[in-house]
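Journal club prep — side note

Before the paper discussion, L.F. wants everyone to see what a predicted structure for a comparable chain looks like in token form. Sequence:
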Amino acid sequence: MIDKQYIGHTLPPFQVNVEPGRLRFYAKATGQTDPIYLDEEAARAAGHPGLPVPPTFLFCLEMESPNPAAIRELLGMDYRRLLHGEQGFSYYAMAYAGDKLSFSQQIADIYDKKDGALEFVVRKTRVTNQRAELVAELRCVSVVRNG
């Protein structure tokens, strides 16, 4: 069983620079057709200071963590029994190419179902920009299959 004492545990924050080339690549890969995600002039004409961060791209940036497996390692989660249970995003402000985003991850909850056959770990991540403005909160639920 995953030790519930880790509920509330936070990892050291880390920062990621938002690069325009990666935004364009992601927009193309996810089928974005709105030119504001691909062309800086179109983005500015639409009132943005630069290329906006496409929806869900913050999850990709979160993987820039110095150790993306830190929570899994801390909790002793066997990746061979690990499932991605849920992903959610709450947005508060836009992020753009050139921003420096800070990610603060916390283990928000640990619980089990089916008499421990399934264990759930809820990670919440606060994302702020270089002006300390809240950009988004990310929520990820990992599931460990036991038995």
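L.F.'s comment for the group: The mean pLDDT is 96. Keep this in mind when we get to the figures.
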